[in-house]
Amino acid sequence: MKIRIYLLLLCEICFEISKADIKPKSPKKDKRLNFLGRNKNVSISEEWHQHKNDYKPLEEQSFEELTLHNFTEKTANFGFNLYRKIAMKLDNNIIISPLSVSTLMATYLLAAEGETHRQIAKALNLHTLKDRDRHYLPALFKQLKENITTNEELLFVHGILSFIQKDFIVREAFLNLSKQYFDMEFLCVDFQNITQAKFVINQNIKQRTKGKISELFEEVDRHSKLLLLDYIFFKGKWLYPFNSEFTEIETFHINKYRSVQVPMMFKSDKVNSTYDENLRCNVIKLPYKGKAYMLIVIPEKGEDYVSLEDHL
């Protein structure tokens, strides 16, 4: 039976949650705009217009007030749902950044309307939250990011790059709102020149990730008009560091068929931990400086890791 170890990095992102339960602003009756403009050579499908005209709100849907507290809870649940979907199709190690995915999808909310807007919100697990002011949800993403990235004891860099085909027109309203709420940077490229476009994109990502990601793209699509990229760079310091002298070579199980010998850290110390009787797993909490934590979830030997994934 395969044993998986789950590593979850959690940051203390909500300070004084009880004071952050702000009610949404009064609903505005202004017309929703399609912020993504197109040049004369790019057509808009008739199907998209049909979705826009046929959109109707769910009459019997119960909604929750949109606050920072339940927003972060819903966003965390989105991350676990995303992990479960990926784990169903893969049997290898999985490293994902749900914050990156949700942030990128939230930028599309600024340009979407009707059925498209509803489906994106549903995918983000935010469809049951009252968002009568369309600026309020992006504002919460902005506050969430600021709570993490302004922590001076953590090196946590998060940003979004938008690469736009040089002759593709994007409306000013979308540019301004994306910059205001998501600090999006816009760069013009010529996707027709595949070599140059790939170089510009990879160099920008390499620079912003301190060289950790040197070649994100091996190929780019020459027909691209708009490419959004989200990047995260994290480097934390243990509150109680491991002693490198105690590093030993041990067996690491890649899957139930393969294992490799790798250097592993060892330490004897008192740590915060708990045992979940329902899931039959141990959870260990390792603190970083800056009130951030790594949670290590270790299933009991012989236990069904799929069941554990389903209840994360």
Describe the protein.
This is Serpin domain-containing protein. InterPro entries: Serpin_dom, Serpin_fam, Serpin_sf, Serpin_sf_1, Serpin_sf_2. GO terms for molecular function: serine-type endopeptidase inhibitor activity. Keywords: Signal. The chain is α+β, with helices and mostly antiparallel strands and 312 residues long. It has a domain at 31-235: Antithrombin, Chain I, domain 2 (2-Layer Sandwich). Helix content is 32%, strand content 21%. It has eight helices and nine strands. The chain has helices at 46-54, 68-89, 98-109, 114-123, 136-149, 172-182, 194-208, 305-310; strands spanning 6-11, 155-165, 185-189, 226-235, 248-253, 259-264, 272-276, 281-288, 292-299. The strands form three sheets. It has a four-stranded antiparallel beta sheet, with no helix packed on it. Strands 3-2-4 form a three-stranded mixed beta sheet, with helices on both faces. It has a two-stranded antiparallel sheet with strand order 5-6. Helix 3 runs antiparallel to helix 4. The longest helix is centred in the first third of the chain and has 22 residues, at 68-89. The relative contact order is 0.16.
